[in-house]
Amino acid sequence: MAAKSVLGKPGMTRDDLFNINAGIVRDLIAGVAETCPKAFILVISNPVNSTVPIAAEVMKKAGVFDPKRLFGVTTLDVVRAETFVQEITGEKDPSKTVIPVIGGHSGETIVPLFSQAKPAVKIPAEKLGPLIKRELSKLFTNAIIEVKRNRRAVWRFTESVIKAVNGQKGIVEPTYVYLPGVLGGDAIVKDTGLDFFSVPVELGPSGAEAAHNVLSSVSSEEKQLLEACKTGLKGSIDKGVEFISKSSDSK
User: Fold this and answer.
1) Is 212 noted as a catalytic residue in this protein?
2) What's the pLDDT band for 6 if we cut at 50, 70, 90?
3) Which residues neighbour 239 within 8 Å (Cβ) at sequence distance 6 or greater?
4) For the residues 19-33, what does the mean pLDDT come to?
5) pLDDT at residue 7 greater than cutoff 70
6) CA within 20 to 30 Å of 39's CA: 25, 90, 98, 142, which one?
7) Average pLDDT along the chain
C-alpha cells in the first residue's frame, strides 16, 4: 500500500509538492518492482491521478507491470457520495447505499453518478446541484469525521481486495486503474480517450478482473461533469508519465 506523501508547507509551490510526492511514490514502487513484483499495489499517495501513472511507468520500465495488480484508491469519494445521499434519504446503514463515483480523485475529475444509485434515490432538483458541489469540493465542517471517513474508505477497499483474492465472488468497487490491461477497459478508453480512469471494477484472485462501463447510462448533468473530468484528468496523467520520463533522462 503506497500511502506516504507530504503536505504543503509555507512557501512551497504546487510543483514543489508534486515533485516531492512523485519522487516518494517512484522510489517506493521501484522497491516493489525489485523485491515483490507480484504484489497488489494500492496507491493512496496524492495526487492519485498522477501517482498511479507514475507507479505504472516504474513497473513498465522494470518489465514487471501487471495492470490487474495496480489500483488507485478512490473509495473516499464513494464513501462521501454515499454518506451525503444517506443524509437525504435517512438511511443509517452504510452498506445499504451504493453510489458509483468515476473519473479521478481530485476536484473536477470526481464524477459521482447519483443517477445510478442502488437502490434508486430521488434527489430533489434543488438539492442535486449543492450535493454535486459538496462532493467535488471535499468541504467538511468536522475534521475528525473526515479522518474517520478516510480510514473507513481505505479499509473498505483493502478488505475488498483481500476477500476477492481469497476467492469471494461478486465484489465490485470503483477504483482508478490502467484500463488497457483490464477486461472491458478498451471500450472505456475509446469513450474517454484516457488510459487511466476510475470505474466500478470487479475484483478477483488476479486483481482487477473486469472494468464495468457505466458511461452509457449517465444523466445529462453527469455528461457535463465528465467533459470537465476528462480535460483535467488528461493533464494529470500526462504529468505523471512525464515525471518518470524526465527522471530517466536525468540518470
Assistant:
1) no
2) low
3) 18, 50
4) 94
5) no
6) 98
7) 86
Q: Which residue in the block uniquely carries the three cell numbers 509538492?
A: 17
Separation between Cα atoms, residue 152 and residue 156, nearest integer Å: 6
- Per-residue H/E/C for the chain: CECCCCCCCCCCCHHHHHHHHHHHHHHHHHHHHHHCCCCCEEECCCCHHHHHHHHHHHHHHCCCCCHHHEEECCHHHHHHHHHHHHHHHCCCCHHHCECCEEECCCHHHEEECHHHCECCCCCCHHHHHHHHHHHHHCCCCCHHHHHHHHHHHHHHHHHHHHHHHCCCCCCEEEEEEEHHHCCCHHHHHHHHCCCEEEEEEEEECCEEEEECCCHHHCCHHHHHHHHHHHHHHHHHHHHHHHHHHHHHHCC
Residue 72 to residue 49: CA distance in whole angstroms: 8
Residues 6+ apart with CB under 8 A from 144: none
Q: How far apart are CA 90 and CA 110, in angstroms?
A: 24
174 pLDDT higher than 80: yes
pTM: 0.88
Q: Is the pLDDT reported for residue 142 higher than 50? A: no
> Which pLDDT score, from 0 to 100, does residue 145 have?
43
What are the grid coordinates assigned to 225, written together?
A: 461533469
Catalytic residue among 82, 105, 178, 229: 105
Residue type, 71: F
